[in-house]
Amino acid sequence: MARHNDLTDPSPSSPGAALPEPATGPGRDGLAALLARPARALIALDFDGTLAPIVPDPEKARAHPEAVPALAALAPEVAAVAVITGRPAEVAVHHGGFAGVAGLEHLVVLGHYGAERWDAVSGEVSAPDPHPGVAAVRAALPGLLAGHEDGTWIEDKGHAVAVHTRRAADPQGTFDALRGPLTDLAGRNGLIVEPGRMVLELRPPGMDKGKALRDLARDLGAEAVLYAGDDLGDLPAYAAVDSLRAAGTPGLLVCSGSEEVTELSERADLVVNGPEGVVRLLRALADRIGATRPGGD
User: Fold this and answer.
1) I need a labelling partner for 281 at 20 to 30 A (CA). Which of 24, 72, 119, 170 fits?
2) Which tens digit of pLDDT belongs to each residue from 257-285?
3) CA distances from 111 to 89, 248, 271 (A)
4) Considering only CA atoms, which of 287, 288, 277 is closest in space to residue 8?
């Protein structure tokens, strides 16, 4: 059952918005731990569908207008804020408007599911060499998509290639028709297929949002973790939070609600109303932590 506990304040930027109560015991424990020890908490979020609304053309995706102010208000209160995305790190930074923002000096953006890392403190990206299979797939895709050109769109991510079907006349039917052939193509070239919301991404194996989240939580020594996502690619991060909780680190799973993907809402501790709901949650956390900090209002 989906766990809808969205904030009811209609304005993301309104001060003093009430915090929602997670629908599960582990979620309530995770939120309590985050509020009790914010300086030891990791806040990690997906980008598309979580901080930015889903749009037909991914190049036109931009963070919700209140996302950066909310992140900038929360980031100084916690151990770290990270954006974990399948996009190239620099693209997420540009589309998010994260660079040079006061309060986000220590933001980390983990692109390509953690294969790339952008640090606000340096403004630099560290990344491995591209997998050779990506070039082979890139060359083969136009032929494989013959007959599906109308409405499909290839997004070249450098370290991965994605085929979008949202603009096709039958988005789901085209997605279903292409999934098998694209999986075969990926397998022949040492890649895997990551399905998402009307998108099939061909990328190298061995790196996912779960590993990226676990590694970052370990490096920080995080004592509480919040992860917010909206799509199938976020399930490994959900699994990572589950494993952290089993090992004694409280965690809160947030779903940026979507009717296209129900797997996350069924597993989440807290479901909010898309990027606007995520922004309200971030702002409410910042307000609550700031109010309870010694010297806070």
Assistant:
1) 119
2) 877 778 899 999 999 999 999 999 999 99
3) 4, 28, 24
4) 277
